[in-house]
Amino acid sequence: MTMTTTAPTPQNPVGRPHSSSSVNDDASSENQQQPQQRSPRPLAEKVAVVWRWPWTIALTLFFLFTLLWTYGVVIRRYWILENWNDALPGLGDSAFRKISMRFHMTFGAIAILCSPIQLITPFTKGFRRKASTTTTSSSSAAVRNLYRTVHRYVGRVYVMCGMLAFVFGQWFICLKEFRLVGGYNMGAAFSLGGFFIGYFAYMTWKTAPSNNKNNQNQNQKQKYTIEDHRNYAIRSFSQIIAPVLYRYWYTAMVLLKVYRTPYLNNGDINNSKDLVCDDHNVCPDYLRPLDAIFCWLYWISAWIVAEVVIACLPKYKTTTNNTIDNNSIDVNDTNMQEEEHLTTQTPLLTEQPDGGGVINNSDNDNDDAVDVDDDNNSNDKSLVSVVNFVGCLLAGATFMVTGLILIAVIQQ
Prior knowledge:
Layout: H1 20-33, H2 53-81, H3 95-120, H4 125-128, H5 138-175, H6 183-206, H7 209-217, H8 226-240, H9 242-256, H10 289-312, E1 317-320, E2 337-340, E3 349-351, E4 358-360, H11 374-411
Antiparallel strand pairs: 1-2, 3-4
């Protein structure tokens, strides 16, 4: 007679048998409690990050100048006083020129004033918080939805105003038959620069995640990524502020007395010299070599800086929540994956004291933890150094120029 024996069932401390699901749950909970191990990073290897403070200083001071320019030029000159030919001749010679110039400047100013909101909201903790698979507090979800809603609707205003600024600007150039105060050279430069304002604004809207989500629901292949949206937004920002940079650097030349900029149509403030122009309102002051080159350089240089910044930004990664048992994940559940929003802010990525990798100091949520591609960091260190140098240079320049402008405004 053959006897069969069964292995004893494992007992818990109370003496009750463990079920197979309980064993799996215990193993899963142990995996959750164990921190994710990272490979050690050599002490000599540093993480390449873009410094935040010089760019913050430069943009803050520049937007302070933008507020003064918006009131003094757009609101006061074109809406209150209606001094159309105060600075340049031929702006108010017809009703259509007045309409096109007034709305070109107005929509451009609105788009510029919307851009700081679009720059700030993606870097906030509430915006970057992911939709967790577990139950979260209603306040946390409300904050996340608020930031993203503000970013979405302000972005739509930004895109519409940017495209309308291009349309009215092109209308004015056509009314002038492409012969501006700087001749055909300025007409071609401003026309092409305006085209990129409208094009990059449109591509920023087209690559938005909400548009891609709609395409994905219709079983269409996703053409753009969130990284494309970010890159086009940076390019659009560089072009929308370029017309203000054109005035900003001219103002800097006047204050620093490094170059005699073109006179104003109503006379220079210091020596009362008028801007001399021909019958077609083409002025020799704007035909000088530096002024002719500057018509192109002001928006091309801003575009170049944007491309350098884009090259130094980290890549977006699709990550999964590692704290959940792999056996319990439905492969069809696409909500378990999210685009991780990486930024180049210094507090976000810092070196651990023991050189053991990169840690996230932006908040205490594990959902926001990010990994950095070692190869990308080593390859981008030189570009990051260039961006840091440019940021410090712009911070110093804007501090000096905006400071001189504020002193001049106070003294008047």
